[in-house]
Specification:
- The chain is α+β, with helices and mostly antiparallel strands.
- A hairpin with a 2-residue loop joins strand 16 and strand 17.
- The chain is built from 9 helices and 23 strands.
Length: 492
């Protein structure tokens, strides 16, 4: 997709997020959140702000009328004694809705009906197979060795001479392996049933569709015993040469363009989502990924386009995001700390506290077609009280942002690291909080997310050096602010 087409898509797609560069370095993402709410009648300036809006002729009965947000937010400032700089030139997205409310939410399960529906579409009537003898797992057949040899031979024209020598060695090794490999490996068909914890909490197998082989996995409990509802469907056909991971991604087309127009991929993904039976989801994020390969430079490896989908509640999206960095303190704005600049410090989450991973559906396509489908951690969203909550005017939200963004990343200053943030988009929607991560119950609350990217400059022998990104990531949340009371929602 051209830059022009990308802008057009992002401007029109419901719930679409920006594509941004991730925090430089490594971090751990968690969706464990803390949030402190004020009662509606305690929101600062609520009545005065509403009266002012009504005097201007604005319709305060809608979400747009309440928040009074401009089309763009522009700002430039420094904080943390000049160690942290913020540049903002961001478009603002506000849902066209009459009201927002608080909705209880809890973790759901992938039912047998869900599993049958999904596999019925993805498997195209083909059976799920497993190795008859576990000792044969991973053993290659003659045909597989020949297929890998063809893939490696096709790579030789794309690489330099040094890598060609490695490829020749690999090709020869597969030829020798093929001479000893069996013509076939004994497989058995397995029933497609939701796994019980006693069965290892996972259902795994392979399905062959046409000339492609796919790996299928369903997990209901992870290795730590936590509930993890996940369905994964992966194309293994080209796995010897390159494979896709979730960490090697790009925030924009750039050198990662594909022959297949992105509009075509989006259409195919939307159609597949409908076939899978997931209603009430909308495209939230585009993300270009590069395949990891032991032979190719990243720029030469296969490109994939990931479509991230998220649930909508009355046309208001549950916001898709990835936390930009890891920090230790839980920050909230509190009345009793006004004398200290309005900053209240919480204790943060215990490292042994269980994590409630967010709901998501993602579909990955390359020019070769469908490569991956992931369905994770479905929600059960319950009905709210039906009453609209009061939303702070956007001006008050930006005041919170300017006070709190430095506090969130203060650890950089403490380590003598310079940092800068570029805010590129701001969205209002629902964010899930974890009231009880142990039982995986929480609420959907109205919140603003300030999306953007970050750069860090590390000191070395008295000079500052720009750090090099080890990966990129999309939809980075620089700061998440409760739209009702201005508290900061965080994920330490």
């Amino acid at each position: 997709m051209s830059s022009r087409c990308m802008k057009k898509f992002l401007a029109g797609a419901a719930g679409a997020g920006i594509l941004v560069t991730g925090l430089l370095g490594c971090y751990q993402t968690t969706s464990q959140m803390t949030v402190t709410e004020k009662k509606q009648n305690e929101a600062q300036g609520g009545a005065q702000s509403q009266n002012a809006a009504e005097e201007k002729g604005q319709n305060t009965s809608t979400v747009e009328g309440q928040v009074q947000a401009p089309e763009r937010y522009q700002a430039s400032f420094e904080t943390n004694e000049g160690m942290f700089r913020v540049e903002a030139d961001a478009d603002i997205r506000v849902p066209e809705a009459e009201k927002m409310e608080i909705r209880p939410v809890k973790s759901g399960n992938i039912s047998q009906e869900d599993l049958d529906r999904v596999t019925g579409v993805l498997f195209q009537g083909q059976p799920l197979m497993q190795y008859q003898d576990e000792k044969q797992a991973g053993e290659m057949t003659q045909e597989e060795c020949e297929r890998y040899i063809r893939q490696l031979e096709a790579l030789r024209d794309k690489v330099d001479s040094g890598v060609r020598e490695r490829l020749d060695t690999e090709i020869e090794a597969y030829r020798k392996r093929g001479e000893k490999a069996p013509a076939s490996v004994k497989m058995k068909e397995v029933p497609i049933k939701v796994p019980e914890p006693a069965d290892g909490a996972s259902l795994e197998g392979f399905v062959t569709i046409g000339e492609k082989e796919y790996e299928f996995q369903m997990v209901t409990v992870n290795d730590e015993g936590e509930v993890l509802q996940k369905i994964g469907f992966y194309d293994r056909t080209a796995r010897c040469a390159q494979y896709f991971t979730e960490s090697r991604v790009s925030e924009q087309e750039g050198d990662f363009s594909m022959e297949t127009p992105s509009e075509t991929i989006i259409g195919e993904g939307n159609a597949l989502l409908e076939q899978l039976g997931y209603e009430g989801f909308a495209l939230a994020q585009l993300e270009y990924q590069k395949a990891a390969s032991p032979y190719l430079e990243e720029k030469d490896a296969e490109t994939g386009l990931v479509l991230h989908y998220t649930r909508e509640i009355d046309q208001i999206p549950i916001l898709y995001y990835r936390e930009a960095g890891k920090y230790a303190t839980s920050l909230t704005l509190r009345e009793d700390r006004k004398s200290d600049g309005g900053i209240g410090l919480g204790e943060g989450n215990s490292p042994i506290q269980k994590i409630w991973q967010p709901e998501e559906i993602s579909i990955l396509y390359t020019d070769e077609g469908l490569r991956r489908v992931l369905i994770k951690n479905p929600y059960i969203v319950e009905a709210g009280a039906g009453e609209a909550v009061y939303l702070l005017p956007f001006q008050e939200i930006t005041d919170v942002f300017q006070r709190m963004i430095g506090e969130k990343y203060k650890s950089y200053q403490e380590q003598n690291i310079k940092a800068s943030a570029q805010v590129q988009q701001i969205k209002l929607g629902y964010v899930r909080t974890a009231e009880d991560a142990e039982d995986q119950e929480g609420r959907l609350v109205p919140a603003w997310i300030f999306y953007g990217n970050m750069e860090t400059v590390y000191p070395e022998e008295g000079e500052y050096l720009l750090s090099q990104a080890s990966f990129h990531s999309a939809a980075q949340a620089l700061l998440i602010i409760n739209a009702m009371d201005g508290t900061v929602i965080d994920a330490p």
